[in-house]
Automatic annotation (TrEMBL):
Protein name stated in the entry: FA20A Pseudokinase
Record gene name: Fam20a
Family: Belongs to the FAM20 family.
GO MF terms, alphabetically ordered: ATP binding; kinase activity; metal ion binding; protein serine/threonine kinase activator activity
Keyword set includes ATP-binding: yes
CC cofactor: Mn(2+)
Residue positions binding ATP: K104, S208, A209, F210, L211, E282, D297
Major localisation: Golgi
Organism: Calyptomena viridis
Subcellular location, record wording: Golgi apparatus
Pfam family, one: Fam20C
Active site: D277
Region of interest: Disordered: 387-408
Domain (FAM20 C-terminal): residue spans on this chain: 172-388
Length: 408
């Protein structure tokens, strides 16, 4: 605490700060203005590349717990946007130009696989999975994962010495190995045994750009129709009823429009990364019922390269429907000259923490892609291509109220 106080006095941070102007060319603002009904950013967006660079290089000016931890402590009503768990740690880091990113520290080494006896809802949160998910989402041309980049953070200078949160300050300590560590403060499962530590100060993690505030761009959090049971026993209806999709199709908004197709997109994405923890999804209200689904919180992906969890593909295999654009992209990435593992490997080399995935995880992407295509072929054999493949290559004009971007 003394060191923190002296640091703030030295930088004159104890006096009221003068209001900072908002620069129109700030990468965070340009990213937000680029959000449209087609995705979080346009293809080949220069704003996203600048944003990734800024998140790598800009110094942090403050650090705080995320809404998850604050909800657990009763410090805010975050029920609209978070479902607190308490078994992981993430922080909100702020930068100049009003930039803000979610920091998830390294909890598991790249070469380690999730133990096979772990339930999906107690699995580790992996920083490299967040990074890899952003790259895969961009390769699939979904553009539904916020820009994410890896960075080495000095936990002393860039978190402890800039935070105003006394609770966060109180959970820092020096380990017997002389490394600086910290842990989450919450009612349960948050002890020094679950701390993350620098080496001695540097800790790698992922930084995911924040979306516009809920005041500016309201979002809905909606339960996934294929939600899993979050207990040690029992099953959901979709796990025991192969005709479950018939029930879903009768319920608005899955009865018409693109919502069910977007659910299938999300299931394919989750199957490729091995993420079983998609209990909710979010949407911008501005774009209406047919808007895209946000693919947030992917840190429980890429845990086991040796196992393919076929049940994640239930929306595809039970509903037997897929967008034509999605199928064409998957077929292209199965071609030898555009192999998904090769494209991912090259893309991930752009990240400063490369290599992000081990080779077995990259090869697992090719294997899983073939399983997705096999599921589509099985549906076609049963129902015919015209029924299975939905033509989304020509979209009807959007209603005037839904057009444009999140720039109001």
């Amino acid at each position: 605490s003394r060191r923190h106080r002296l640091y703030r006095e030295e930088l004159n941070l104890t006096s009221p700060a003068a209001p900072l102007p908002l620069r129109p060319d700030a990468s965070w603002l340009q990213f937000h203005l680029g959000i449209s009904r087609d995705g979080l950013y346009p293809r080949s967006s220069p704003a996203v590349n600048r944003l990734l660079q800024d998140m790598q290089e800009f110094p942090t000016i403050s650090a705080d717990y995320s809404q998850d931890e604050k909800a657990l402590l009763g410090a805010c009503d975050c029920s609209q946007i978070v479902k607190p768990s308490g078994v992981h740690l993430k922080l909100v880091l702020r930068f100049q130009d009003f930039g803000k990113a979610m920091f998830k520290p390294m909890r598991q080494k790249r070469e380690e696989e999730t133990p096979e006896d772990f339930f999906y809802f107690v699995d580790f949160q992996r920083h490299n999975a967040e990074i890899a998910a952003f790259h895969l989402d961009r390769i699939l041309d979904f553009r539904r994962v916020p820009p994410t980049v890896g960075r080495l953070i000095n936990v002393t200078k860039e978190i402890l010495e800039v935070t105003k949160n006394e609770v966060l300050q109180s959970v820092f300590f020096v380990s017997p190995a002389s490394n600086v560590c910290f842990f989450a403060k919450c009612p349960y499962m948050c002890k020094t045994e679950y701390a993350v530590c620098g080496n001695p100060h540097l800790l790698e993690g992922s930084l995911s750009a924040f979306l516009p505030s809920l005041n500016l761009a309201p979002r809905l959090s909606i339960p996934n129709p294929w939600i899993r049971s979050y207990s040690f026993d029992g099953k959901e209806e979709w796990e025991v009823n192969p005709l479950y999709c018939n029930t879903v199709r009768e319920i608005y908004p899955y009865s018409n429009g693109n919502r069910l197709l977007n659910i299938v997109d999300m299931a394919i994405f989750d199957f490729l990364i091995g993420n079983m923890d998609r209990h909710h999804y979010e949407m911008f209200t501005k774009f209406g019922d047919d808007g895209f689904l946000l693919h947030l919180d992917n840190a429980r992906g890429f845990g086991r390269h040796s196992h393919d969890e076929i049940s994640i593909l239930a929306p595809l295999s039970q509903c037997c429907i897929i967008k034509r654009t999605t199928l064409l992209r998957l077929q292209l990435l199965a071609e030898p000259e555009y192999l998904l593992s090769d494209v991912m490997r090259e893309s991930l080399l752009q990240d400063p923490l490369a290599p992000i995935l081990t080779e077995p995880h990259l090869l697992a992407l090719d294997r899983r892609l073939q399983l997705v295509l096999a599921a589509v072929r099985k549906c076609m054999d049963t129902h015919g291509e015209a029924t299975v493949v939905a033509n989304d290559t020509t979209q009807p004009p959007a209603p005037v109220s839904d057009r444009g971007r999140l720039d109001t």
